[in-house]
Amino acid sequence: MAAPLPADAQDSPEQALATGRWVKLICGAGNQDLAAIEDLCAIYALAGVHCIDVAADRAVVAAARRGLAWAAEQAAGREAPRPWLMVSLSDGEDPHFRKARFDPGLCPPDCPRPCQRVCPALAIGAAGGVIAERCYGCGRCLPACPLGLIGEEHQILAAEAVAPLLAELRPDAVELHTQPGRLAPFARRLEQVRASGVPLRRLAVSCGLERGAVGPEASRPPAPLTPRQLATELWQRFALVRAAGLRPLWQLDGRPMSGDVGAGTARAAVALLAELQAWAPPGPLQLAGGTNDRSLALLPPGNRAAGVAFGSVARRQLQPLLQQAEAAGRPLRELPELRRQALGLARGLVEPWRQRGRNAAG
Q1: What is the rounded CA–CA span in Å between residue 286 and residue 251?
Q2: Which of 27, 29, 164, 309 could bridge to 288 as Cys pair (CB 3.0-4.6 Å)?
């Protein structure tokens, strides 16, 4: 039996947003590694996250729900609000919704395979080629290839597929990734979400300063916006979200998919929050993009952070344990010693935020 949930795990997702203690796990909008997703959802739900964000994919959502069901079984007899299940969509091409690709037959036999070394998802196999279900689009392999053999494939859900898919999946929330200058595509995607008829708790809008943002080690993107310009973009989307009868959650994407690179990546999201919060539209402001265990300590006094989303750092810290479980041929959550270690790591990341500002409104 796993260790019990801490007593302060009783915050509901909405309470956590209101008090600045919200924690979300990002499994990856393009991540389709079902075994890992099931274990990640199980462990981080038990650690007390308030929301789990996954790809809008039937098999992925089913895996996430199995993990959540396992966590609920461990918490049987104790009141512990179930984390929201969120699915991610995009209103156009976006680095979170792409896969790397290359033909390993074109690689020279003596290649030192720098692409394999820099891949945080272990998505480039020893025999060559991309393991598509593991790739979540960080882009670090693209500039690493000395011959420029690696390309990318964007995966965008067809307009006619959105409403029926959401009606089938029935998530608690939807995250809509957008970029500056894409208001019309955002409006169309939002209408498709609304047409599903699913009663969503929140509509998360993920956006940052970058136009066409890419992975942290890729070539320089076009000139970014100023925080004031980004606020204008968010206000335009706020009007559309409220007209659709939905409640927004603003995900400030500081440095996409880089939280595992180093402690310094946390500064981007915190700096964006500090500069944007005076101009932002109504709704909770959540840190993302480069977040890690340094993010909370970097927050300035009087900040409006409603919480944080952990993506690459949350996945990366459990990766060695997931590999051991894979080698043993069993789910991590079913191996007591690995489960204990994984839960300790997950709680170490999640708990400081859940303890934040217990005597303040956040």
Answers
A1: 5
A2: 309
* Rg, C-alpha atoms of the chain: 19
The amino acid at residue 351 is: E
Cβ atoms of 152 and 142 within 8 Å: the answer is yes
Q: Cβ-count burial of 327 within 10 angstroms (0-12 exposed, 13-18 middle, 19+ buried)?
A: exposed
Classify residue 269 by burial, with Cβ atoms within 10 Å: 0-12, 13-18, 19+. buried
With the C-alpha atoms ordered 202, 62, 258, 115, is the resulting torsion angle positive or negative? negative
Answer left, alpha or beta for residue 138, where phi above 0 means left and psi between -120 and 50 means alpha: alpha
226-235: list long-range contacts, CB under 8 Å, 24+ apart. Answer: 227/272, 227/275, 227/276, 227/279, 228/279, 229/180, 230/180, 230/272, 230/276, 231/276, 231/279, 231/280, 231/281, 233/180, 233/181, 233/183, 233/207, 234/205, 234/207, 234/280, 234/281, 235/281
Q: At what angle do helices 58-74 and 159-169 cross, to 10 degrees?
A: 20
pTM for the predicted model, two decimal places: 0.93
Tokens of 104: 């390993």
Residue-level length of the chain:
362
Q: What is d(CA 78, CA 5) in angstroms, rounded to the nearest whole number?
A: 8
Q: Pick left, alpha or beta for residue 90 (phi over 0 → left; psi -120 to 50 → alpha; otherwise beta).
A: beta
Eight-state DSSP code of residue 124: B
Non-local CB neighbours of 127 within 8 Å, separated by 6+ positions: 104
Rounded-to-integer distance, Cα 356 and Cα 291, Å: 16
pLDDT of 261-291, one tens digit each?
A: 988 999 999 999 999 999 999 999 999 999 9
Distance (Å) of CA 280 to CA 118, 231, 237, 243:
36, 5, 11, 18
Q: Which of 355, 277, 259 is nearest to 48 (CA)?
A: 355
